[in-house]
Amino acid sequence: MTTTLAPVRCLAAWFPDWPVNAWWLAEDQPQTGPVAVIEANRITACSPAARAEGVRCGQRRREAQARCPQLTVVPADPRRDEQMFTPLVVTIEQIVPKIQVVRPGLVAMRTRGPARYYGGEAAAAEAILAQISELGVAGSRAGIADGLFTAEQAAVHADPILVVPPGAAAGYLAPLPVNRLGDAELSELLPRLGMHTLGDFAAMSVGDVRDRFGDRGVRLHALACGRDPREVVPRRLPPEFDRQIDFDPPLALAEQVAFSVQATAEDFVAGLAAQQLVCTELRVILRAEQGEHVERVWLHPGCFDAAAVVDRVRWQLQAAAGNAIGSGLVRVRLEPVATDAIAHHAPGLFGSGTDEKVHHVLSRVQSMLGHEAVVTPAIGGGRGLAERQLMVPWGDRAVLRHPADRPWPGRLPDPLPATVFPQRRRVEVTDADGVRVGVDDRLLLTGIPAQLSVGAAHLQLASWAGPWPVSERGWDAAQATKGCRFQVADVTGGAWLLMLDDQGWWAEGRYD
């Protein structure tokens, strides 16, 4: 005989249109005006002001903007939603421990403890909503019912609190539409079968539901009947990995700070290792005696050990000394921004070979000469070759002034030259008779390129391609570029990227 446990009495706290609220909080914008969050060109959340103008979830962007021309459209960002929701979760946990984050904008908890402490379920909900309102988040609601699903539906209809009496979950859910189950397939199929409400679906026998819809249908049928079997699973608080050291009296020398922070760095790395983690992205926060505050996020090509952490603290202090910091240092704080499983950074059976040696040598040179003494190349966005190449300090993430994933009409396609000259080199391109080759007004060559002269070297050309007209920054006389690009290959196997402008022929790069 199988015994079905009664649903747990739950309280669900819901924050309508949370993606919009998260954007307001992240951008420090006033929580007014028509705002909509868009994903895949459809509205997924909108503010009350936008709804008043006829904007609805599911609309296409063009339709929403036609209804509300002043609509502010922002892209969906799940990471932003989660980051902005964390402070609210921490605030609720100060009132009621052991809460479950169902999704950003919705939390659930068992009501037994809070009801006893605050003198009733409604009183507990009032305390939670009052605390949330102090954080500047308006419009939050709370639903209390048997089971998580019913409590969530009650929160949607709350004003601002709705309590479904014990044992009344099925009756409360019966008139709600079947799309509240959150299953797109059943939401489309059930109305075609004549079942438009949860009550209609609940009236089916469990056997018929299993035969027609399988185990998934049985689970959703239990929700429609008010028999939600799910337990509230409190979120598991992550271990505290941050480390901090205070100096009294303040320290003025970078070497003194580096020596003093050594033990803290070792404890920081050991704390992560105890959880089988390593730090790949580190935030170092420095605070000085007169209130100066310097914060920076450091990256590592592998993972941080204690020595690497100490190096970053020293480099950051050396860069800030006399500039952003003018007094003695009183505090150093270490925070892991990104972590990874330690197994991903363990050496293989025969070690990591050349990569490990290269990393050790470069890190050692960097620690002796300074952070920017060892750099690696990176390719960014843009049209010109010189503006696309960047030199990034070893271990740092490349910060691209011009993102490479944006459209750059007219840029040189791959493959790019292996060697890009910092300054264009003067060259000459002539035909078989030694006459300089040019381009007329119709972009037709005045001769067939046969020879390339680079300094004292004269190379016979085997093939060529072009011209490709280039016209950039015509509004900026200092950076304007106008001419034609060519690609040529000489008989020795070398290939060159050339530019012809009003001043003559130039070599921009070489394909090695």
UniProtKB/TrEMBL annotation:
Pfam families assigned to the protein according to its UniProt record, in alphabetical order: IMS
GO terms for biological process, alphabetical: DNA repair
Domain UmuC: 34-160
InterPro entries, per database record: DNA/RNA_pol_sf (IPR043502), Rev_trsase/Diguanyl_cyclase (IPR043128), SulA_CellDiv_inhibitor (IPR050356), UmuC (IPR001126)
Task of the protein: Poorly processive, error-prone DNA polymerase involved in untargeted mutagenesis. Copies undamaged DNA at stalled replication forks, which arise in vivo from mismatched or misaligned primer ends. These misaligned primers can be extended by PolIV. Exhibits no 3'-5' exonuclease (proofreading) activity. May be involved in translesional synthesis, in conjunction with the beta clamp from PolIII.
Family that this chain belongs to: Belongs to the DNA polymerase type-Y family.
Protein name: DNA polymerase Y family protein
Organism whose genome encodes this protein: Brooklawnia propionicigenes
Organism ancestry: Bacteria, Bacillati, Actinomycetota, Actinomycetes, Propionibacteriales
